[in-house]
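[job 4417] fold queue: 2 targets
>>> target A
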Amino acid sequence: MKDNQIINLGKYMFGLCFLLGNICLLGYLITKNDGFAASGYTLLILGTIINLLLVTGLLIYGIAVHSKFYICLRAIGWLMLNIPVAYLYAVIGINLIFK
C-alpha cells in the first residue's frame, strides 16, 4: 500500500465513525426518538470492534513491512481521535436518556 492510502484509511474510518456518531446524537437531541439512542450505542459497540480490528491490522502490517511502521502509527493516531469523542457522546447520551 502507498503511504497516503494507509493514512487515508485511518482518516476515512475516523470521519465515518465521527459522522455516524453525530447523526445519532443530534438525531436523538432533535427528535427524542429512542431509535437514534439505540443506534448510537450499537455504533459504539460495533465501531469499537471495527476500529480495534483495523488498529490490529495496521500494527501487524507495520511490523511486517517495517518501512511503513510510522505511517501505520499515524493512521492509528487518526483512529484514536474517536476515543474521547465517543466517550463524551456516551456520557451525554446516558445523561439524556436517564434524566
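>>> target B
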Amino acid sequence: MKKLILFVLLFCFSSACIAITPADTQYANELKYKRNKIEILVKKRFVKEDSGYSSTNYSATTYTQEAYSTTWGYGATTSNQRSEVKEIEDWIIVKGGIRNLSDDEFLSIIGKPREAIEIKEKEEHKGRIRLAGNVISLLGIGYMLMAAGTGNSSASISAGGVVTAIGFLISAFNSSQKHYLNPDYAQEEADNYNINLKKELNLPINFE
C-alpha cells in the first residue's frame, strides 16, 4: 500500500514537472506583461464645420399721382458658404491595450498613492460643487415657474432666470478635468513602470 502511494506521488510530481517547462513560463510571463503594460496613446479626430450667411437688401419707392401709383426699386442678395475641417488631438492612458485609465488610477498602479489621492479629492470636490450648481439651477427654474403661475411681475421671473444662469455657470466652471498630469510626465512614468515589470517577469528590456 505504501509503495502504491509513493508511486502515485512520484507520478504526480513528475507530471507537474513535465507540464511546466521554461518555455511555458516564458510565454505566461509574456502574456502577463501584455495584460499589464501601460501605454500613452494619442487620439486624433476630425470635425467638419460648415458656416455661411445670406443677406438681402431691398429698396423701393412709390410715387402716387391722383389715382395712379408707381413703385420702383432694386434688391441685391449676397451669400457666403465656408467649410473647414479641424483636427482635434487628445491623449489617453491605456492598460493592456484595452482599458482606459484615469490619472488617479494610473498613479495608483505605478506606485504613487499620495498623488492619486490628491487628484481624486480634487475631482470629488468639483463634483460636489457641480451638484450644488445643479441644485441652484433647479431652484431658479422652479422659482420662475412658480412666479409665472401666480402671475407675479416679470422682475420675479427675471430673478429666477438669473439664479438659474448662476447655477449653470457654477457647474460649467467646475466640470471634470480631462487630465491633471503632463503627457511628458505620464510617458516617462509609464516607461519606468513597463521596464520594472519586464525585470520582474524576467523578460528582455526590449520586449514589446
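[job 4417] complete. Note on B: The longest strand covers residues 38-65.
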